[in-house]
Amino acid sequence: MGYPESLLAFRTLEEYFGKPFFGVVATELGGANTAYAFHIACQLGLPIIDGDPAGRSVPELQHSSFWISF
């Protein structure tokens, strides 16, 4: 049995960026978004980060996008 899709996506992003992530953040508060973030953090033993980019539930991705540079 393989990873659930949420964990597979998390691991795939880690592989893409070439470094392990140190925590998990929800893309918005509420609904399945928060549940997925908590599920991933729990399954991988990572901290959940209180850093929702919008601070509220929003209908579209551009409302909760933020820039991360490396």
UniProtKB/TrEMBL annotation:
Protein name: DUF917 family protein
Domain S-Me-THD N-terminal intervals: 5-68
Highest taxon above the source species: Bacteria
Transmembrane regions listed in the UniProt entry: none
